């Protein structure tokens, strides 16, 4: 991957079907891993369309091909207002939701690369904090967050369940 051109860009309406295909793979991967996350009809095609309409859908491109999808939302996650624990900061933040890697790019460290790009994105917006949550049984994401030095802050209630909440200060 070292010689690959990797860029983060806003998703556009033409990307919807590719993104939805990647999310379907991720939903199935969660199911096969025995995770309850994403097994209740969320996210769905409407979620992706809504992300793109709102301008919060992003894709990580590898050599011109969509490899990873994520929603990056500024300061807007009502569920984060109530945390059983404490966030590291109270200022502006980027929320990371719906991270999904295309199967053909799996195992190449691209989710970690996505988080590097999200940190750059946050800094470019003069935002010092990134917040993310995941299911207790999403071991892949928990490992990524640990490797990227996100701090466990407590639990939030989201999408009908308790989620582990993490934050990283990036500037």
Describe this structure in words.
- The protein has a single domain, classed as Aminopeptidase (3-Layer(aba) Sandwich), CATH 3.40.630.
- A hairpin with a 2-residue loop joins β2 (57-62) and β3 (65-74).
- It has 171 residues and is α+β, with helices and mostly antiparallel strands.
- α1 (16-32) crosses α2.
- Strands 1-2-3-5-6-8-7-4 form an eight-stranded mixed β-sheet.
- It has four helices and eight strands, in the order βααββββαβαββ.
- The two termini are 27 Å apart.
- Residues 6-171 form the N-acetyltransferase domain.
- Keywords: Transferase.
- GO terms for molecular function: acyltransferase activity, transferring groups other than amino-acyl groups.
- This is GNAT superfamily N-acetyltransferase.
Topology, element by element:
Layout: E1 6-10, H1 16-32, H2 45-54, E2 57-62, E3 65-74, E4 84-85, E5 93-101, H3 110-124, E6 129-134, H4 139-147, E7 151-158, E8 161-169
Parallel strand pairs: 5-6
Antiparallel strand pairs: 1-2, 2-3, 3-5, 4-7, 6-8, 7-8
